[in-house]
Amino acid sequence: MKESTQNQTDNKAFTEECHTVLTAVSDALYVIGGKWKLMIIIAMARGNKRFTEIQKQVTGISARVLSSELKDLELNGFIIKKVENGYPVTIEYELLPYSQTLEELVGAMTRWGIQHREKVKAEMGSEKSNKQ
């Protein structure tokens, strides 16, 4: 009986931990998920501040999607839109300090992406040599 009670306690703690992890990951994916948001932030961190500069760096993104993603990033506190009145009106986007909280995540994703690409290439290479 005592073992059953201990098991239930362990399972409850495991379930609560699992729920906490799933909720945290869900929140992160909601804010930076999708195909474009991190790529936009990375492009901006490399000095691209104008809409057209960002669009050129983030290959394949349409103007409509870029505009929408920039609004989402601004809403979530990663960037700010700066409008300078004059002729012509100048609009630049700037990363806010909060965007730096993603550095560790981007670094980990970069390392994993390089590792995964090398793994896939190696597997494709070994498949080709096995067929010959």
UniProtKB/TrEMBL annotation:
Q: Ranges for the HTH hxlR-type domain?
A: 18-121
Key words, A-Z: DNA-binding, Transcription, Transcription regulation
Task: Name a Pfam family for this protein.
Answer: HxlR
**Which InterPro entries does the record cross-reference, listed alphabetically?**
HTH_HxlR, WH-like_DNA-bd_sf, WH_DNA-bd_sf
Task: Indicate yes or no for the key word DNA-binding.
Answer: yes
Instruction: Tell me what this protein is called.
Output: Transcriptional regulator, HxlR family
Q: Specify the superkingdom.
A: Bacteria
* A GO term, aspect molecular function: DNA binding
List, alphabetically, the PROSITE patterns matched: HTH_HXLR (PS51118)
What organism is this sequence from?
Epilithonimonas zeae
